[in-house]
Amino acid sequence: MEPRPKPARSDDALPYDRELIRSGGVTSGRQRDAAMRSPAAERPRSRPRPAARPRRSGGLARALLLLLVAAVAIVVVLVGIRAAAFHASVSSAPFVSSALFGPLNGDERVNVLLVGYGGAGHDGAYLADSIQILSIDAETDTTTTIPIPRDLWLEGVESFARSGKVNEVFAAGYIEGELDGAGALLSRALSEVTGLDIQHWMSIDFAGFRAMVDAVGGVTVENPTAFCWTTGEDRHRAGQWDSGCFDSGLLTLDGEAALMYSRARYTSVASESTDFARSARQSRVIGALRSELGDGGIGAIGPGLSLMDAMEGNVHTDLSAIDLFLLSSHFSSDRRVELTEGPVLTATTNTVGQYILIPTGWTGPGDYDGVRAYLDRELATSVGTAGPDAP
Fold first, then answer.
1. What is the CA radius of gyration of the chain?
2. Burial of 36 (C-beta count, 10 Å sphere; 0-12/13-18/19+)
3. Cα separation, 242 vs 293, whole angstroms
4. Which residue has the higher pLDDT, 222 or 239?
5. Which terminus of the chain, N or C, has less C-beta within 10 A?
6. CB within 8 A of 167, min separation 6: which ones?
């Protein structure tokens, strides 16, 4: 049987490229020739140009914004570090804490005790020279200053076992527990006497007071009454006003002059020789110090840092640095409520002949109902009914 003839093979009929398989993937000469004869190969294929990107605008503004953000971040970090160091030197509270944020945004009064004292190198170094209560109405965001005369007599007060003038309480507390003990004991005693819940306190010595005023370049106060002063009771009785004088009107005071203005007790004008007049002058200086910080913001950073430097080692408190910042806007009070002689207090002497002040109509030890009732009435009235220096 004759073999069947094999059909002629045509590469064009194959479903694959034999030359491509044989060459191991290299195009055959026939394919290359065909490709060269292709009309598409007669001219190079041009690539489409990519669409031009729009030129970015505002690059400089963004760079400046980034620089500003970086600068602010650096300032925040540096101020934070500085605030932490300041806090460690003046406060017994935790640094990242706030005892006042909630209460100042609540509906109850916030009462903070402010105490000035002589400090090391002064006679009676830890007798309170100045005692004031800042009573803040959280609902109206107004502040009433209540100066406490240092001759106020305490007797029958549970937290202060013995009898004595109120300025002695701070010294007694210092003996028991240094400045923390002093502030805590005086706060408890005055809470009993006034009926106010005094939970926090701040103290400053004379050196700190001077340094704070000098740190802001001095203060300017409006002095309503001109007077001269001396340093001793004997000179006062003799009419020897040889320590200096303060004119009426605007006074620009450095640290030393501000301290003397605030402390002057033996003056040529009888009305300026009282504790009430002294506390009013102290409030003027504190208000002037507060005004140097302005309304806060970047402009307040410089004066604020200077004040922190001045306060280190001279101020002590149970409030944190955050709380002191929150409290700073209340140092310039909206009014004053004074425990004046006559309606509230009566001048007398104790058994050893000391000048003291007792509640009017006092029936005996522990009777401070008249003081509490007076403060209740005054604090219940609108702040707008009295000016900052009104009694």
1. 41
2. exposed
3. 35
4. 222
5. N
6. 127, 128, 129, 131, 150, 151
Buried b / exposed e across 358-369, counting CB within 10 Å, b at 16+? bbbebeeeeebe
Cα–Cα distance for residue pair 255/212, rounded to 1 Å: 7
Determine contact, residues 197/111, Cβ cutoff 8 Å: yes
The alpha-helical segments, DSSP class H, found in 264-358 are 275-291, 301-311, 321-328
Confidence band, pLDDT 50/70/90 cuts, at residue 391: very low
Query: How wide is the angle at C-alpha 74 spanned by C-alphas 71 and 75, nearest 5°?
Result: 85
Neighbouring C-beta atoms of residue 263, cutoff 10 Å: 18
d(CA 195, CA 379): 12
What per-residue confidence (pLDDT) applies to 73?
A: 59
Q: Which long-range contacts (CB under 8 A, 24 or more apart) does 158-163 make?
A: 158/192, 159/185, 159/188, 159/189, 159/191, 159/192, 160/185, 160/189, 163/350, 163/365
CA atoms within 13 A on the CB side of 190: 34
Nearest of 277, 252, 254, 286 to residue 116 by alpha carbon? 286
Measuring CA to CA, which residue among 306, 131, 289 is closest to residue 213? 289
pLDDT in tens, 279-327: 899 989 988 988 877 655 455 566 677 788 888 889 999 999 889 888 8
Region of residue 221 (phi > 0: left; psi between -120 and 50: alpha; otherwise: beta): beta
Query: How would DSSP label each residue in 222-241?
Result: EESS-EEEES-HHHHHHT--
DSSP state of 10: -
**Confidence (pTM):** 0.76
Rounded to an integer, what is the distance from CA 127 to the centroid of its chain? 26
Tens digit of pLDDT for each residue in 15-60?
555 555 455 554 545 554 554 555 544 555 555 555 555 555 566 6
- 344: closest CA among 363, 364, 365, 358? 358
